[in-house]
Each structure stands twice: as C-alpha cells, then as structure tokens.
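Standup, Tuesday
Yesterday: got the pipeline producing structure tokens again.
Today: sanity-check two examples.
Blockers: none.

Example 1:
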Amino acid sequence: MLAKEKDFKAFLENGKASTTAVDSCGTVRVPTGVELFYQLYVVRLCSMVQPDASNQMDSPIWTPLHARRPERYIMIMGFAAKGEDWQPLIEQFLRASKTVAQNDRTLEICVFDNRGIGKSSVPKPKTAYSTEIMAADALGLMDHLGWSKAHVVGFSMGGMIACKLASMQPHRVFSLCLISVTGGGWQIIPSTSKALGTFLKGMMDRSNRGRALTDVKFHFSSATRHAMYEGREIREILEEQYEASSAQYGRQLPEGEGGHAHACWTHSVTVEDVRSIQSGGFPVLLIHGREDLVAEYRHAETLALRLGARLVLLHGAHFIPRECSFEISELLLSWTSSQELQGTDGDDKSSFAKIVTGLVASSDRASKVALDPLIVNRIRRDSKDRDPVGQRCMPGWCCF
C-alpha cells in the first residue's frame, strides 16, 4: 500500500535499480526441450554499523561480519509476464529493510521467462503448455544452476506452476510462497460483473491502448490508480508505461498467450498434490490482494485451508509484487529468515504472528491488520472496509 510521494516515485520507476544486482544471465536448454532465458541476482544483506569518528562519510557503512550459505530463491512469473517483472520486489530486497534482522545474508535469486514469453522458446501447440510441464522447466533450470533445493516463489500462473513443482519434487523445496494464486480451472474466470465487464472490454479491444487500460485496472487497486503524483493520477502514468512497453517490445505471440491460458485453465490442485506438498514438511505461505479482480481472494482462502498454509491479505489488487513490493519483501525476508533459524516447522504459529506483528509495527504503510491471528476464526468476504477488530480470520491468517 502506497502512502507517500517517495513511495510513488519508486513505484513508478518499476524496479529499474535492481539491474545493478544481476550477477549473470543467459539462455539454457532444459530437459523438457525448450530454451529458457534467465537472470541470476545476488543480493548481499549485511550488518549496518555506525561510522567511527575518523570517517568523514555521513551515511552508515554496510559491512559483512560472518558469511553464511546463500539463500536460494527461484521466482516464477505469471500469465503473459516476463521474469524481469519481479524487479520491483528485487529492488526492495536491495534496500535491505531496517525492520528485519538482515545480518550477513546472501540471496541468490533466479528469475526467468516462462516458455511462451520473452526470450524463451514459444512452442506452438497448446498441449506444450501445462503447469506440470512448466514446473519441469523450472526444475531443469534449478539443475542447470546446480541448486538441489530452493525457496520457491510464484505469482499468479507462476504460483500454479510453483504448486506443481512442490508436489512433483517436494524434497527440493525449502519453502513455498504463492502470491495472487488460485486453484486454476473455473477459478480464473471473473465472477463479478465489474471484473467480467472489464475483461470482455479488454478482449474486444486488442490495441496496445486497450490492453493497457484493461491491465492497469486489473493490476492495481483503486486507491493506487486514483492517487495523485506531480499533478496527475497514477492511473494515467501507468497506462502510458504499459502502452509504451507494448509498442517497444511487442505483444506476446498468440501461441504463447494461448498456451499460458491453456495452462491456467487445465491446472488443478489434486488431493495427491496436497498430500505430496504436505509430505515435504516445508512451510507454505499465501499472499493475496484484497481487491484482486483477477484471482479473487476467496480462492486463496480455499487453497490455504487445503494446504494448511498461512495466508496474508494486503491492501492491493492482482499485481502486488509491484503494488505492495515493500510489504511482500519485508514479509518474505522475515519469514524465510525465521525458517532458516528455526528449521522448517510450519506449525510455529507464535513465530509467524511475531513476524507479521513486527512488520505492521514498523511500517507506516500497512494501515490495517487483523487482531491476533491466533485467536480469530474466519475471514469474511465483506470485511475489507471494516474495523480490523471486527474481522475474523483462520488461525495463522492475518489481514493488512
């Protein structure tokens, strides 16, 4: 949730500063037969110490104390989106927030273009696209990097792929984080008249301008879209950015777009998937926007219940890796640090509550939080405008 002018400035820059952390990039052919373009970011989070009297610099000095093994993250993007769309979140990692204990951590973050988009292969048959096949792509990329295990983070369709990856090879997962995700199939169809109307209008207008208008409305909350920055609505600036990007880089090829749609439509989380994920013993976290018109948060509730996962609701729409990048980065860094230090016991509810409470207490942007997530019972669909004391959540869930 954005609150200050400096927040809007960083938001509109869309993570450009993150490119300084790219350690390597390239294209690799994975065992599934496609070529994947990937980028590997290395982010070093070190202890901040005050300069001594002899130092003339005004700013603090960041120095490493004791090296620890790298924390590896494979981050899987969503429908019609490239790996570089993770940049706003990676930039927040680079800022090494002061609200989280960051002593001497090195993050190795791999982002990549899924098959069907960007610089990766674009198979023509729709049958070449499924969340199982695309999960195998990601596992092949992990093999190429020499990663036996990683924290797996997925957004939207990428969350579906991440879920399949975790069920296919649970022994390779440290933790699983699913952002703006549903169970696939009919759940990807907008069910409200507002969302359906926007979707149909976007389908009818295939121009770059029409696509930009639709995407911005789906991706960002009304509060963000209608906020003012330098005398203009944020919505106008975002629409210009989206339209310019389409004009510069071109639209996704029809085969790729159709393939991604096919993967989402045919995706499901089976009973066997749930059992396999739970057998891995790793913690699972779902993060979702309360104003998401693309993936309604009731579907995230259902999936969280099935997986026995934590669920955090943020004040944002669908594309919260950009709109709520600050909150997500804080939450992820705290959460994975907690797992590193305490093992992978996903039942430590008090630990999770402390993480979220600390995040809310330290952030002037997280304006609402549910009462103690350990004592409240269930989220109400109409609760987003209610006082947080009146909200009800599942144990271990919380709402910003």
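Example 2:
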Amino acid sequence: MMKAFYNLNRWGKNGMKDRTQDILNRLLDSEIPLPVKYLSTKFKVGERTIRNEIGIINELLRQCQLLPVSSIRSKGMQVNLSKTDRQELVDFISHHSSFKYLSREERVLDLILDIAFGDKPVF
C-alpha cells in the first residue's frame, strides 16, 4: 500500500542534501543497526552532524507516515520498515521529479533569491 509520499512535495523546493540521501540509502540498505561513529567516519563528518541528518530523515519519514529511524543502545541506528515500504520509499526518492539534489552553490543561490524576492522580511 502506497504511503503518503505526496506530502514530500515540499522537499522538492530546497532539495535534500546528497549526504542526507546517502545516509538514508545506507540505512535502508542495511539489515543491521549502523553505529553513529561508523556513519560519521564514512561521511567524514562529526557524530552531531549525523544525528542532525537523521533528524531530517525522521521528519521525512514522519511526513510519509512511516516509522522514524530508531536508535538501538550500544548498536546504532536502524530503519524499521517492511520490505514493501522500504522499496516504495527508495523508488519514490530516486524517481520523483520534485526531488532535486542541489549543490552547495545552488543552495546558496536559492537562499539569496529567497531573501531578495521572498514575501517575508528577513531581519
């Protein structure tokens, strides 16, 4: 049964960072919990950054009405989804046209344009 992936349209505006998608894919591909230390080493960032990225992933999963990434003490992080939900999420992320992955330069430009032409004042 298809979950509420239509709620993800807002992710298309600012895009999801490549690293966030890579972490999500790594978690989806793994059958065992992945330690935060392993992920931080793999992606060459701090453990706090990994935890922040997992927070973003959890927001996305909540919008899809899916279970968030769980933290298993002394083992690591794990996505607890059925095989069907996993595959639907992977397919949606990889094929949905509104999912745009922006480079750093594109994100900076997007911020500048939002500030310059946005409806809300920035101060």
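Quick observation on example 2: Helices lie at 11-14, 18-29, 36-43, 47-63, 83-95, 104-117. The longest helix spans residues 47-63.
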